Amino acid sequence: MAELDTGFVKRTIPFGELGSWAPKFDDSQLIPRERWSQLIVELGDDTLSNKIKKQQKKGKMNALDQGQTQYCWASAPVNCVRIHHMLTRNKVLDLSPASVAATIKNYQNLQGNAAEALRFIAERGVAPSSEWENYLYDDRSLNIDNTTAADHKVTKWWDLDPGSIFDQLATCLLNLLPVAVGYDDFMGRPGFGHEVTAVDLVDFGGGQFGIRIWNSYGDGWEEGGFCVLNPFHAIPQDAVAVAWAQ
User: Is residue 1 part of a domain?
Assistant: First the structure.
């Protein structure tokens, strides 16, 4: 799908400075790198990706499929909300990225940024798929205020700092907190900007780590919608983590 302009836009002044919409990640909470390998071993099979896959075997928690929309930037944070509900409430929600992105972009199929989407979800929520189709963006009869979106708001989230972004990302993943991560050159493809959901820290040995991501290309992409980014391609340019959602 390299020909598809997926819609990722790295944060710039119009989207807000780092930490202007949510607190910056507190580096005092960082897990030291020398502990990462052992913590991955201790997690064993109890990873975010395996928890998602268990739900998928039940016909639930399917990967989002953005199709020809440019809504990766809303899909990744919406996935974070879905994962959070699965973990904290044992509840699987189908939520609509278009209810967020189309409202922000005035019903147009336009690029954006995950921080932009998360700020919106914090303020107004995200609608269930039953009330707004996942990627229906041009139906102006739809209004997010006429849905139950306000029941699905993010109440705590962090901006990850580019200066220590991978250590902060790893700390979140080792604490089973999903992270929306944005790349300028996704999977090493120059100029192919994309936003995905980071779910697991992966040990490559020799002090090298990658991440497992959950994409928004449907269950048929790679391994059921998941793939591992190696250490050379795992460091994002932009990242926001969901810590709590109602």
Answer: no
Tell me phi and psi for residue 74, to 5 degrees. -95, -30
The CATH number of the domain holding residue 164 is 3.90.70.10
Average pLDDT over residues 56-74: 93
Confirm whether 6 is domain-assigned.
no
At residue 16, the pLDDT reads: 53
Is 8 domain-assigned? no
Show the domain range for 32.
13-245
DSSP one-letter string for the chain? -TTS---B----GGG--TTSSSPBP-GGGPPPGGGHHHHHHHHTT-SHHHHHHHHHHTT-SPPPB-TTSSTHHHHHHHHHHHHHHHHHHS----B-HHHHHHHHTTS----B-HHHHHHHHHHH---BTTTS-TT----TT--GGGTTGGGS-EEEEEEPPGGGHHHHHHHHHHTT--EEEEESSGGG-TT--EEEEEEEEEEEETTEEEEEEE-SB-TTSTBTTEEEE-TTT---SEEEEEEEE-
The verdict on residue 230 lying in a domain is yes
Q: What is the number of structural domains in the chain?
A: 1
pLDDT digits (tens, 9 = 90+) for 103-144: 999 999 999 989 899 999 999 999 999 999 999 999 999 999
Fill in the amino acid letter for 156.
Answer: K
Q: Report if pTM > 0.85.
A: yes
